[in-house]
Amino acid sequence: MEWDAWGVAEFRKQLSPQVLSLLSSALGVDAEQSPPPEESAAVLRPTNLTEGHRTDLDDLIGSEHVRTDDATRLRHAGGKSTPDLLRRKDTEPQDAPDAVVLPGSHDEVLALLRYCAAEAIAVVPFGGGTSVVGGVDPARGGFHEVIALDLRRLDALLDLDTVSGIATLQAGVTGPQAEQLLGTHGFSLGHFPQSFQFATIGGFAATRSSGQASAGYGRFDDMVQRVRVATPTGDLDLGRAPASAAGPDLRELFVGSEGAFGIITEVAVRVHPIPETTAYRAWSFPDFATGAAALRTVIQTGATPTVMRLSDEAETGLNLALAGDVGGESPAAGCLAITTFEGTAAHVESRHAEACALLAAAGGTDLGEQPARSWEHGRYDAPYLRDALLNAGAIVETLETATTWSNLSNLRTAVTTALTESLTAQGTPALVMCHISHTYPTGASLYFTVVCAQTADPLTQWAAAKKAAGDAIVSVGATITHHHAVGRDHRPWMSDEVGELGGRVLQAVKDAVDPTGILNPGKLIP
Amino acid sequence: MEWDAWGVAEFRKQLSPQVLSLLSSALGVDAEQSPPPEESAAVLRPTNLTEGHRTDLDDLIGSEHVRTDDATRLRHAGGKSTPDLLRRKDTEPQDAPDAVVLPGSHDEVLALLRYCAAEAIAVVPFGGGTSVVGGVDPARGGFHEVIALDLRRLDALLDLDTVSGIATLQAGVTGPQAEQLLGTHGFSLGHFPQSFQFATIGGFAATRSSGQASAGYGRFDDMVQRVRVATPTGDLDLGRAPASAAGPDLRELFVGSEGAFGIITEVAVRVHPIPETTAYRAWSFPDFATGAAALRTVIQTGATPTVMRLSDEAETGLNLALAGDVGGESPAAGCLAITTFEGTAAHVESRHAEACALLAAAGGTDLGEQPARSWEHGRYDAPYLRDALLNAGAIVETLETATTWSNLSNLRTAVTTALTESLTAQGTPALVMCHISHTYPTGASLYFTVVCAQTADPLTQWAAAKKAAGDAIVSVGATITHHHAVGRDHRPWMSDEVGELGGRVLQAVKDAVDPTGILNPGKLIP
């Protein structure tokens, strides 16, 4: 990925004059597009890595896999949140890992962790680097040195059990690599989060990722059958059956542990045959509440679409306005819902028929296939659009949460109000959009996208809005994150999430597996 | 429940002369039926409870809720495994809790735990007392006194969110009580394990129970949205959304913690409207492997029956032979499969049609509705039949496990061989039967029922067979328990299950919440 933006340069977007004009008139964004900064303008603090440690790391995994050059360090200096990208472009000296190490096996990961624990070197596990919550921030904790442990060389499909539908993948396999490795055998993982093109299997597990097809294939944590974890105090290999009553499910402690308890090196996940067929159908609802109730009926009845999403009026409207820029279409006002259905022909036909009947009965207007196909076609474009908007002087950021169906409207109002009031009070009126992208029988996620003009200090500007939104989320009893994880940015709300004793339990687990505290300091644990 | 048997006296079964004759001729069981022993023959070790502790407990929760009479102690002296029942009937002095306390609220549970931690009194949480793994064994650990903490007074429906489909139930609510409380509002929990008639919500959560309708409504751990837990060091209230990425899922540490980490006092669970309709269909398969492959196709395709089971040839044959005794019918040889489908009329119709087509294509012969209805009618009878067989001089016991589909045949062979060889070597040839009762896309459970003649020392006899079976299970990589939990009896295999470091993690969590180790000593943690 590029050092200062999402993705790769060839997909960078330009904003049309119409969009720039709209940004200026509606939100007061300075329509002067700045060129992206040059990489040479970025200044890194010099590496702290001692000569002795460098030599030892070379001996452990080979000198070609220990990198201290600035280009590599800069590309491991953080994730891809809007604040991360703003920090990257700053020309003041910035922090970065003192070295980037690229082990080639589970045993090398284990050896590195033992070495770093003995030598008091902090370790930040690094997969695709797509965190938007500061999860790969090169925080040192109390340590003099910090290294990024990049898992990209662990990129193999270790086993495929076609009868059980279980693939064992190494942690560094990216989303597209997984689909390619499995696709040659006729299988698919079916995990398509926004970060799909760059994020890794290990990262999906470590952060409880949820993909756009979660209604059909489940969240990534649901897919996980087994995890192999290296810690400074030894190995774990957890998960002996599809389901078990052999005590607490320790997989669920390490899934979601964000590198603070160990490094996941292998994951056995449920896979499924590449679907025979896919049905697409879009719907329009007169308002968000009606649409949400319709989605609820579908998921509670068990009609099991593969994808089911609902944009609110603001998001539906913006997509309509931006149709040319984001490659999508939004042919109706109101609230746009997208559904897809995958599987065998008979399966798709019956599920699609059942869901269509329920959605129509709940007040939906059938928009046909095209908007759903357009959504799928453009679904990885949003982060590129964000980079263009950031360069045009706008703040664009997203945040997400989840709650029960009965609390959903309350949550949406609370977060929308908090973001709007915070940013308006700072002199930058905001467009706040929302969608549901993950549904469960008992509730749903809400995903917010915020656009406003940058102030002179956009990091402080966004930090205030983010704090207001987080406080609003916990005040109505929702979760601080549905699928972005905790990292550095959600840590202030973890005590609300798990309680004081819950925090002590997390610390007790960490002390058992990482007694010196080298693993991903400053993340997750309240 | 009765002190020496499953359930209540009015449902006790008598064996027919034909069955007794079959037991004698096939397995060498002495066909002389003994009368059940008298309760007065049971001798309990005197209570250790000190006068001072008795007075303090009275002050904490009221003297009428502190019981030290032998009748109450005897009914809390253990669970309902076959070894438990054999021990109960022994006329040598037997162990029992020194007192049984019945708190009336979460706060009283918390106060009791704090008191017992301060006074070094072991606490065994007690729900329905249906454990078949020694989970409510009154073990003292290193403590002088042990009390059973019976949750039966926590029997309320605290909240019902009909929009989200979430009920908050207190831990002492039994299966039938839950259905009654929810039923008046048009809802059902849909959790029907073998222990349904007596087991409790708290016990379902603490042991990761799985009901016969797990294909449709999920395991109990899947249903749990939120748990409230009292520990000696404070409270936990875990679960803020249907799904979250806010770190490790601490619910999954306390669900399945079997009273060793705290006492679950409230559980918010997913519920669903009482189904509009139920479809029943039974199938016959020529052999177990063909039937298992058929079930696998159904669950991997997502045809989602509510119940789906498959008996092997031996179990199908015995059910046929015992039809008159167990109230069921088994009109075909081969392997009998049962399916049911619940939901709205449209939902049931499409799912049933899809599953029927798949099962027929996979080699099933349609047996119509009746065998499935008969199975449902008699599904809670087996433990009563066991009591009659125990009294007739037979050993009858069950054990269960789970693995991936590709390993299922291997597992079945290994366990069947281990049980058969162990019991045959002891001079008691055994009938070993097996069924699949819980299916997942990646694998299934196997449930074994063993019948043989009792030797002079049936506890030692069964212990040898159980050890052989457990060793066989872990040797083929399966889980030591799919839904019976760990308790005392599966603890020897927990190190195989979670590894040495996993065991240390469990102990670290216990030390954080229960530093004096009063909670359910001798269970779960390896």
Overview of the structural elements:
- The structure is a homodimer of 526-residue chains.
- With 526 residues, the first copy, chain A, is an alpha+beta fold.
- The first copy, chain A, contains 19 helices and 19 strands.
- In chain A, strands 12, 13, 14, 15, 16, 17, 18 and 19 form an 8-stranded antiparallel beta sheet that branches.
- At the A-B interface, strand 9, helix 10, helix 11, helix 14 and strand 16 of A face strand 9, helix 10, helix 11, helix 14 and strand 16 of B.
- Chains A, B: Belongs to the FAD-binding oxidoreductase/transferase type 4 family.
- Chains A, B: This is FAD-binding oxidoreductase.
- Chains A, B: InterPro entries: Alkyl-DHAP_Synthase, FAD-bd_oxidored_4_C, FAD-bd_PCMH, FAD-bd_PCMH-like_sf, FAD-bd_PCMH_sub1, FAD-bd_PCMH_sub2, FAD-linked_Oxase-like_C, Oxid_FAD_bind_N.
List the helices and strands and how they pair.
Two copies of one chain form a homodimer.
Chain A: H1 17-27, H2 51-61, E1 66-67, H3 70-74, H4 82-89, E2 99-101, H5 106-119, E3 121-126, E4 145-150, E5 157-161, E6 166-170, H6 175-183, E7 187-188, H7 201-207, H8 214-217, H9 220-223, E8 224-231, E9 234-238, H10 251-254, E10 263-270, E11 272-273, E12 277-285, H11 288-301, E13 307-311, H12 313-321, H13 323-326, E14 335-343, H14 345-361, E15 365-368, H15 370-377, H16 382-391, E16 394-404, H17 408-425, E17 431-436, E18 439-440, E19 443-453, H18 458-475, H19 494-513
Parallel strand pairs in A: 2-4, 3-4
Antiparallel strand pairs in A: 1-2, 5-6, 6-10, 7-11, 8-9, 8-10, 12-14, 12-15, 13-14, 13-17, 16-19, 17-19, 18-19
